[in-house]
Design brief:
With about 170 residues, the protein is an alpha+beta fold. It has a single domain, classed as Hotdog Thioesterase (Thiol Ester Dehydrase, Chain A), CATH 3.10.129. The protein is built from 4 helices and 6 strands. Strands 1-2-4-5-6-3 form a 6-stranded antiparallel sheet. A hairpin with a 2-residue loop joins strand 1 and strand 2.
Length: about 170
C-alpha cells in the first residue's frame, strides 16, 4: 500500500512566518518580551525559538527552569498558532505539559518543536474547522551550547474563542 502524499502547510515555505510569529508573541504574551525570546525559524525542521541567559538566569547563573519550560511551551504553542494562523477565531491553550531536565543551561538556549507528521497537523486543522475544537500532543527539546538539556511534551487545544465581554459603566 502506497502512502498518499500530504501537501505541506503554507507556513513551512513562507519566509515571513518567523517574523509574524515573533510579532504576535511579543504583542500577546508579555513574558516573551521579558525573556527576550526570538523566533529563529519556522520550517520543515520545526519551530525554533531562542532566549539569552541574562534575563532568564537563576541564582546560580544558569537558565531558570521555568524559562526553559516556558520557551519549550512557546515553541510548541507557536507551531499550533502557525498551523491555524488563518483561523482568527481560535484560542490556543496548553492542557497538560511535562518537562525532563537533563543538564543546566549556562548560556543562550534554544527550544525546537519538531514537526510531527504532516497528517497530524492537517488533522488538527480539519478538527478545528469541523468541530471548533482540536487537540495535538507535541514534543520539544531545549539545547544549549550544542547539548540537549531538557525534553518537553505538551498537549495543546485549539478552541473557538468566546466573544469578549466588555464591562459596562
Amino acid at each position: 500500500m502506497t502512502k498518499k502524499a500530504i501537501r505541506p502547510l503554507p507556513f513551512l515555505t513562507d519566509e515571513g512566518a518567523p517574523g509574524r510569529l515573533e510579532s504576535y508573541l511579543r504583542a500577546a504574551i508579555p513574558v516573551v518580551n521579558f525573556m527576550d525570546v526570538r523566533v529563529l525559524s519556522c520550517d520543515v525542521r520545526g519551530v525554533v525559538l531562542e532566549a539569552p541567559l541574562t534575563p532568564n538566569r537563576n541564582h546560580i547563573g544558569t537558565a531558570f527552569g521555568a524559562s526553559l519550560h516556558g520557551l519549550a511551551t512557546l515553541s510548541a504553542w507557536g507551531l499550533v498558532w502557525l498551523t491555524l494562523e488563518d483561523k482568527p477565531d481560535r484560542e490556543i491553550v496548553v492542557a497538560q505539559s511535562s518537562m525532563r531536565y537533563r543538564a543546566p543551561a549556562p548560556s543562550t538556549f534554544q527550544a525546537r518543536c519538531a514537526l510531527p507528521d504532516a497528517e497530524k497537523l492537517w488533522a488538527l486543522r480539519d478538527d478545528y474547522v469541523n468541530r471548533k475544537t482540536a487537540r495535538i500532543v507535541l514534543s520539544a527539546t531545549i539545547e544549549c551550547v550544542g547539548d540537549r538539556v531538557a525534553d518537553f511534551e505538551g498537549t495543546f487545544v485549539a478552541l473557538k474563542a468566546k466573544p469578549s465581554v466588555t464591562p459596562s459603566g
